């Protein structure tokens, strides 16, 4: 019979990594080990930490890192409501996005760099992660936290206003109302963008878009609410908002310059629109 004892931090971290790997719904055997290798507490600042529960923050009883190995939001800036996101949700997003060795990744909304670090590990060897964080203080912390990691850079700027280099994956950690068209245009063939779409005031869902030969395929994944993405959260840019059911029925996204909205459109923005039809090339006249 095993004698009762308190688990060590390494055991707690390893078990948390196993739960994250299961939450990822991915067959990628690297995930559990990488989730275990990157210590969450190293990106959260000095404890005790503020954990968000039902719109309130509760301080951990001590600086013991075991408290952050839960599926909880941990404050990065309480006054601005910026948090390190839920590990199981991000694990599922990472699993769906499927970063691969050697890929170029853009991370929008890096915070202090925890999920950036996971992405950087997953694209080794020869991959690269370009992270954007609009908050200067958080960007500085992310840059410092990510110094030990290979192939990653942090830019303190607005990713919605800057040109975006070609990428295999754009991973967005901020709520988007109107997806910037140039983020789609940056995708290489087979490239993916995964983002929290704030489709309307009551509906937030994670969406995976893949660039294919036929167009931009879209796959709604799961409910998701994030702090708004500065520069991509203006509802005024939308001429047609989707209902919740319509948002979940999205199957493709089109640049307006390539195809005008038709009867399948469920959401129409200035430069692009969301459709319930599968991505397929337009019929030749």
Automatic annotation (TrEMBL):
It is found in: Cytoplasm. GO terms for biological process: methylation. GO terms for cellular component: cytoplasm. It is an enzyme of class 2 (transferase). Its EC number is 2.1.1.77. This is Protein-L-isoaspartate O-methyltransferase. Belongs to the methyltransferase superfamily. L-isoaspartyl/D-aspartyl protein methyltransferase family. It comes from the Bacteria. GO terms for molecular function: protein-L-isoaspartate (D-aspartate) O-methyltransferase activity. Keywords: Cytoplasm, Methyltransferase, S-adenosyl-L-methionine, Transferase.
């Amino acid at each position: 019979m095993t004698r009762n004892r308190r688990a060590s931090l390494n055991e707690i971290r390893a078990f948390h990594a196993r739960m994250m790997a299961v939450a990822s719904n991915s067959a990628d055997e690297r995930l559990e080990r990488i989730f275990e290798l990157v210590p969450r507490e190293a990106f959260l600042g000095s404890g005790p930490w503020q954990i968000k529960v039902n719109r309130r923050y509760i301080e951990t009883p001590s600086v013991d890192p075991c408290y952050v190995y839960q599926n909880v939001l941990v404050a990065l800036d309480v006054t601005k409501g910026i948090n390190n996101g839920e590990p199981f949700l991000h694990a599922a997003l990472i699993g769906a996005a499927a970063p691969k060795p050697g890929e170029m990744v853009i991370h929008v909304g890096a915070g202090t760099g925890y999920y950036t670090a996971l992405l950087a590990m997953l694209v080794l060897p020869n991959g690269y992660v370009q992270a954007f964080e609009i908050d200067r203080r958080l960007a500085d912390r992310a840059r410092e936290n990510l110094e030990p990691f290979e192939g990653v850079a942090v830019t303190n700027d607005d990713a919605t206003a800057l040109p975006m280099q070609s990428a295999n994956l754009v991973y967005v950690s901020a709520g988007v109302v109107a997806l910037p068209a140039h983020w789609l245009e940056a995708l290489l063939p087979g490239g993916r963008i995964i983002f929290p779409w704030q489709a309307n005031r009551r509906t937030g869902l994670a969406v995976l878009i893949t660039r294919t030969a036929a167009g931009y395929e879209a796959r709604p994944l799961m409910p998701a609410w994030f702090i708004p993405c500065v520069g991509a959260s203006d509802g005024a840019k939308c001429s047609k908002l989707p209902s919740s059911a319509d948002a979940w029925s999205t199957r493709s996204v089109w640049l307006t310059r390539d195809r005008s909205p038709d009867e399948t459109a469920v959401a129409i923005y200035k430069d692009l629109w969301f459709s319930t039809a599968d991505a397929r090339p337009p019929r030749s006249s």
